[in-house]
Write a structure and sequence with these properties.
It is a multi-pass membrane protein. This protein is α+β, with helices and mostly antiparallel strands. Helix content is 45%, strand content 21%. The strands form two sheets. Strands 4, 5, 6, 9, 10, 11 and 12 form a seven-stranded antiparallel sheet that branches. The chain has a five-stranded antiparallel sheet with strand order 1-2-3-8-7, with no helix packed on it. Helix 2 packs antiparallel against helix 3 and helix 2 packs antiparallel against helix 5. The protein is elongated.
């Protein structure tokens, strides 16, 4: 039993370490190896859409060799990256586009954007692009290109994007969430990202990661663990009253950490007007309210022999299991909002499957203990009394 408890506690923090590892990998792109053995002097992770920009700037001829990587997509998607010489958003961006064409080949081309209803039609850019090609592997597009930068400048606004391809028609990209924030600036000379899509979005993205970690660990892991302690440990006499304190510790910790995560979510919402995840937000508010009711219910818990204890137990269990179910659903809603973080979703799915498997095994084991204990008690206190007198006080047997 001690080993099982240790496993549960370690598992609850495994998700946090996986999140940290994933976040570090996203921020570190310098160790990536290209199949054509190309090397680039600079690499920066773009703050959104699981994208990276590698480049080498050549001041003697004012050109840039670059590779744009966009992961978390399929070969039925299109991806694009571009520079906006005179503007800051989509209109005016001079794009490099990659997709799979009708012959099944990965095709790269240039496309200037002149309006919001663009179909990313092939055309010449306002600056020269002597080389462009692309490849697709393991859910990631890579566009290789050489750009001849406009004279006298090394710093430009940039934008990047992805969308679906239907037939040979490029569908419009998603008009919410990260797809509406994927812009910023890049300075090819000093290797820095900046602007709205650089440091400020990186800071916001960091807060989103903190929000996700806090809520996944609290509502999504600690809450179910607390229920496991209460459901199964109290069957064992040696675990009384330790199971109660473990249960309270888990649920209280989950509530405190969850409130912190809820607060970061409110802050993110106020900092991102016009960007809404309605289902995720509404479930989060519901969880906060139900969780608060559960905490205050502890202060009103009747004694075990009180006549209202049965009703309190029904209320406590119903609200508790509702909170756990909604928590798991909302964690997955949060992963959908964190576009491109599939590794996080897989890690959490693994944790939930492990907890579910442990719960199933403990359910079977505790029922075995309960049935065995009842049989033992029955043998110690048989219904038939001595000298043939049964529990009803006479010498005859009751007939079915």
């Amino acid at each position: 039993m001690t080993r099982l408890l240790t496993t549960l506690l370690v598992s609850s923090f495994l998700l946090l370490s996986l999140f940290s590892t994933s976040s570090y990998a996203q921020q570190n792109c310098s160790g990536f190896s290209f199949r054509n053995n190309q090397n680039f002097a600079t690499c920066n992770p773009l703050p959104l859409l699981n994208s990276f920009l590698h480049w080498s700037y050549h001041p003697d001829n004012h050109t840039v060799d670059l590779a744009y990587r966009h992961g978390g997509v399929s070969n039925s998607d299109w991806v694009a990256w571009g520079l906006n010489i005179d503007g800051s958003r989509m209109v005016g961006t001079q794009c490099l586009v990659a997709l799979r064409n009708s012959s099944g080949q990965i095709h790269a081309y240039t496309s200037p954007i002149s309006g919001y209803e663009t179909q990313l039609t092939q055309g010449a850019l306002s600056f020269n692009v002597p080389r462009i090609e692309a490849e697709f592997s393991n859910g990631e597009y890579i566009i290789f290109a050489t750009l001849v930068l406009p004279s006298g400048r090394t710093s430009f606004n940039q934008a990047w994007q992805n969308g679906r391809v239907s037939g040979q028609t490029l569908q419009r990209h998603v008009t919410s969430g990260d797809n509406m924030r994927s812009f910023g600036s890049v300075d090819f000379a000093n290797g820095q990202l900046g602007g709205d899509g650089g440091s400020s979005v990186t800071s916001r993205q960091r807060r989103r990661h903190v929000h996700g970690v806090l809520n996944a660990v609290s509502w999504g892991v600690l809450m179910p663990m607390g229920a496991v302690f209460a459901r199964y440990l109290k069957v064992f006499k040696a675990a009384n009253p330790a199971w109660f304190y473990l249960h309270v510790a888990c649920q209280t910790s989950a509530y405190i950490v969850g409130v912190a995560g809820w607060g970061t979510g409110l802050k993110l919402g106020s900092d991102s007007p016009g960007i809404k995840f309605t289902t995720h937000r509404n479930i989060g508010i519901t969880l906060f309210c139900l969780g608060t009711l559960q905490v205050f219910a502890l202060l009103l818990r009747p004694k075990p022999d009180h006549k209202y204890r049965l009703y309190w137990n029904i209320y406590h269990h119903a609200i508790g299991y509702t909170v756990i179910s909604l928590s798991i659903v909302n964690v997955f809603e949060g992963f959908d909002a964190l576009n491109g973080q599939k590794n996080w979703k897989r890690a959490y799915t693994g944790i939930i499957i492990a907890l579910g498997a442990i719960a199933v095994l403990l359910e079977a084991f505790t029922w075995f203990i309960v049935i065995k204990r009842k049989k033992s008690d029955s043998n110690k206190n048989p219904q038939n009394g001595t000298n043939g007198v049964n529990a009803y006080g006479n010498g005859t047997h009751q007939q079915a």
